[in-house]
Queue: 2 jobs
Job 1
Amino acid sequence: MLSKILTILRKISKIIAENDDQAQVLDEIVKVLSKNLDAEVCSIYIYDEEANELVLSATCGLNSDLVGKVRLKPGEGVTGTAFKSGEIVNISNPEKHPRYKFVRGSGEERYKSFLSVPLTVSGRCVGVLNLQNAGDVPFTLSITDVVKSVCTQIANLIISSKMLKVLASESEPGAKGLARKQKQVIVRGVSANVGIAVGTAVIYVKRDYFAEIKLEKTIDDSKEILLLEHAIKAARKETSELGRKAVSLISEADASIFDVHILFLDDKTLLDAIKLKISEGYTVESSLKLVNDDYQKKFSRLQEQIFREKALDLKDVLLRIYKIVRSIRGAETKSEIEVEHSRQIIFTNELLPSDLFKMPIDKIAGIVCERGGATAHVAILARALNIPAIMGAKDTISQVRANDEVILDCHAENVYIRPSENVRAHFRDLLALTSSEPDDSLLDKDSVTEDGTEISLRANISLISETSVLRRYGAKGIGLYRTEFLFMIREYMPSEDSQYQVYLKIFKEVKGEEVTVRVLDIGADKPLPYVKIPQEDNPVLGWRGIRVLLSQKELFKTQLRAILRAGAQGRLKILFPMVSCVSQMIETRQVLSEVESELHAKNIPHSDNYKVGMMLEVPSVIFSIEEFLEYVDFMSIGTNDLIQYSFAVDRGNEMVSSLFNPLHPSFLKIISHIGHVFKSYPGKGLAMCGEMAGNPYAIPFIIGAGIRDLSMGPKSIPPVKRVLRAYTVKECEDLLDEVVSLHNPESVECVVKQSFIRKGLKNLI
Ligand code: PEP
Ligand code: MG
């Protein structure tokens, strides 16, 4: 549901940003709501305080000629009733409502369901939003929930536009100039991260030292070569230091960006090219410039974005050498970035990973970069550092001034410079909706059901840096470590040793708790630059997960060796993705024992008491669980893929997202069946690590199905714990029994919500 709300809010924010005229904004909003909520009619009435009337201000579905003309007193009609009472009215056959008022010429007689929601903000009602449909059943609970959430936004919009009207009528001619000077500007780019950032602008325009260099010749090329070699040595040292700083801030995986720099510094072809220019009589600086120009031209001709982005890394390295050369010669080139206040949004024409690490990262709220795409290293770094970032926002710097207020919306890929009051109000609410401090009131409480059954709550992570929040949210170890990120950020296969270092760090961070490491789940949707994946018509059904690993044995074995070696330092569980046939599991076990024997033969310390598991995420497994259990110690239900494959609904496709629902009774039957089968195998583990495990509404059903081991995004742990502590296992079983006979997810949601109210969990609804 949250994703639906966010989709609508995103669309509304775009409408507000792109239209100055309030009537136009409301017109667009009713269209968006009607489309996204499957309502044939959506109308907005605004309260006119002077006339004490509600005025039809926008409609999609009714006769639009009546906009501005239909006026209702508070208490008049269904709309007036909702307004006066401040309560939602959700009815069928509205003509039977005691306050019904027929609006002639509107065409509303066709519609038999009527939802009327007051537009209220801070206790003040400013209008009403109506939805109408032909069917004579009231709107579902989930639709009313979505409408309730977006109504606050619309109410804010109305209030702020009223405020602007007052301001406009009071303003002097001179004040208009001021308004123009402060006009909002919106620029668009590509999101390199999720999230919203609010802050003030800092402009960081990089000087292009290479463009400024005038070519100079020297007569003593051997002195220049010596200078170059000295500078390269110093650059290597500086690069390692930057890498160390990066490691202390994030993780080895992310700092590996600097490995690429070291590779450039060691690259013989590159160094020979610089030396060749020196031997032609150029100074080191001029040689660096010529080589850079040459490589930039070559890179820009390459088709693949990822290679073009590498050009920035090369330039970064050459510039580092250049600056060292200049400082050896006694010339000043330093241009450190000073970010004085917290919550700054950096606007830059170009940003390199090393620039970012030279900045006080804790003060950076967001990044807007004119160049680069989502796969640029700096974009990956921004993700790892949890900094919202928009890349490729062309011609932005000319439109922003230092200290301008800025809102960066990575969902809509918009940057609002000097946002209007409407936009500000909109984001204030959105931020309140999406950001929440962890609820630590349950941190010391056991994760047990009301009758004392222990439920393990573990975390899903992709980065070492995420281990830092485990304790904050009360996670007991890691139930799913997705190793893909470690592989995806590199342009080359990480060595066994560098993988080992990363895994080891994770074991050390969790101090004796279990760590479930999932081997690479790559495929056409998550490509690796160094593994050639053929073009596929249906990548999701194609060469993915274990299918790739079993045909790339060296890659597979290297990862297993690194995992087993690190596992000697902790409690290891290995998890295999996308298993669909028993034969794959048999082959996987063979590979695993080969790797173990090799480590043993070489006397390399490794884990010898790890557990082997598989993801239960392909429907073919459901009816052969017993056969698979001969080869695994545990299974972890990957609900994201299991729903995708069971309902034939692409998990990444917004068009079909309404069909993706873990509360669908058919899916709950699947979960119940799996739990039932495992009851006969008490020695085998059953976990769940898909998104469903972090959904509070699903918790009673998961526990009712007999699943006692859950893994989720760390932030979901506090609400999940709150729910499970409120129920006995028997109550969960009864609830599951009750809902599996229902016909749709809305009814299941209804049952669970009523149950939450009885349990005092109203604030989770
Ligand atoms: C899943 O499919 O539910 C799962 C946890 O794996 P992923 O989301 O990484 O595919
Ligand atoms: Mg999966």
Note: Residues 166-181 have pLDDT under 50 and may be disordered.
Job 2
Amino acid sequence: MSIFAGLEAAPNDPIFHLTDQFNQDTDPRKVNLGVGVYQDDNGKVPLLKSVETVQRRMAEDPDPWTYLPMRGWEPFNEAAQKLVFGADSEPVASGRVATVQSLSGTGALLLGADLYHHQVAPDAGMIASGPTWANHHSLFRYAGYETGTYRYYDDAGQGIDFEAMLADIRAADPGTVVLLHACCHNPTGYDLSPEQWGPLAEVLADRGLAPFVDLAYEGFSHGLEEDAGMVRAFASAGLSFLVASSFSKNMAMYGGRTGAIHAVCADADEAARVKTQLARTVRSLYSNAPFQGATIAATILTDPDLRAGWEGEVAGMRMRIAGMRAALLGALEAEGVEDMGFITRQTGMFSFSGLSRDEMVRLRNEFHVYGLDNGRLCMAALNSRNVDHVATSIAAVHKR
Ligand code: PMP
């Protein structure tokens, strides 16, 4: 009798399941707008020039595969911290941010969740926006939290119901982790405005809550500096909080698993203690992070030429997505669809299209256009060859 005999198969992950379905589809018109990966106009995940340059250098002068320290590679941690908080910022200069290398944004969320649950507040729950990236709930539940939702998306107003959001956050128990998207909200594409960061910070501070900012898309909304605005506003407001940052999207290093967890503390002494606890968490979970992605990211961030090239590449990806949003909207309007103007008001990789589950199923079955059942479509997978087919298909299932 096998020790696994009683184990049932895990439920399908909806996004990866959709990709499997897409891969089996033989129709030449097929378009995968399901998965959250940026593609170039040829439908390929790009290898950024800046990344390729460092990769080549590493291949020419290879390093041995030694272990990194538990806290990760320190030049990477420093560079990642400066990118998020600002190179000359007070939190960086004062040393009150504890930064530890992570397995991208997901790993950063896990390290933060684990640290807070085991070392700070074992009974605290977590609340996230309704809706949110599905893995937020799975990950925090796995880490031992009960998870809940604060109101966020306002279907009627095609935006955010900020008053309802604040009311729900205000009602949370002190100590609750409040998960926030820094920019490019997944799945809705609607972000808080800079004017809303202050009132939100006030509620978080008054109620003694534990903000956790997920910064998975820095550079994909308005710019590398602008997209870190919520984090910087919270730091200026004197909050203590966690930030998960990632180079999956903005360096197109999805498989590189490169990111960082940052804990913003009261002072440098506290940050030094927190850093040892984060490192201990790494040690218990997987011992230490891989060095390749961290070496690539740190080299790009600290070499002025590579950095300038990379910033241009990030702007290029951001502008291509914005261009595709405009092209899709234009093509939809040409088809007589008049209620989707929000496509160009949303930012980041995704559009919450408002299409019903039935419409999404028809898109998939009749037109070979794959998006999530909740209506989420990946704008970063549109290109000049597929955008018209996507628009006519949406028009066919949706015309009112
Ligand atoms: N947070 C959000 C909101 C995401 O959409 C994603 C990836 N789709 C992640 C975190 C994690 O991505 P990664 O682990 O590759 O950084």
Note: The first strand starts at residue 31 and ends at 32.
